[in-house]
Amino acid sequence: MSRLILKRLGLGVFTLWLVSVLVFAGTQVLPGDVASAILGQNATPEALDVLRRDLGLNDPLVLRYVTWLKGFATGDLGNSLASGQPVSELIGSRLMNTLMLAAYAAVISVPLAVVLGILVAVFRGSIFDRVMNVLALACVALPEYFLGLLLVLWFSVQLGWLPALADTYPGMGLGEWIKATTLPALTLVLVTMAQMMRMTRTALLGVMDQSYVETAWLKGLRAPRVVLRHALPNAAAPIVNVVAFNIAYLITGVVLVEAVFNYNGLGRFMVDAVAKRDLPLVQASALAFAAAFVLLNMIADIAAIALNPRLRHPR
Fold it and tell me: How far is 109 from 161, CA to CA, in rounded Å?
């Protein structure tokens, strides 16, 4: 089992390096020029050449990548090309805002999805099962921005219960913050909860058809004990995987949601950086999202290995 865990760790590090190559290469092919974006359309060719040289834009591509990767590994993310401020200071607070929004959504979606998944598995074929599956498919099929706009229409425009924009500021009270971020969090909950519920249902149904679970039913054990004691532990590995995947999505897939609700998170900040051609900000934001996604999926893989009885107790 230790060898498998080390293998997953090595694969995670390799994946993150490969993502760094793709992120750096992708930012190099963005249309437009950073120097032109900073100086404006009326800049002279001489001024543009001087600025490109000062920013290191004339250096070979491989040299720029090695310098950038070395700085990222040592915690030096460079300076913003637009403002000159350190990138780490610019993305720090916004990354925390994104993590807080993701945590708010995860606290609601994970337990609710697992409980609903267990219930629809126990009552499979019932009206409750069919209704929940239809609702889950609808939430998965609809884009996040469309769900967000529907929630704004219902809860902000028609009912007036919640604000349409998630305006937050430093020192904001917890109650005010919850009220301001409820709609974007609810949008993320609807998308991720549907996927987790369906996977929980599928994993449990696959286990509940096994002979040892049928034996537990024949012994007259109550449904909660059969499901929670016999079925759920053996279905835990795929459930943990899908939960970790959706938590990773809560962190990395918030770009559209933050844009819809004007939330001051890392996703919207990265979109603004792309519009300004601020490459250090775009690269740092994209790699931060990638690192979170790879880390959470690596944790899920290790947890799935640890939950496998055949790997914990080899013959």
Answer: 21
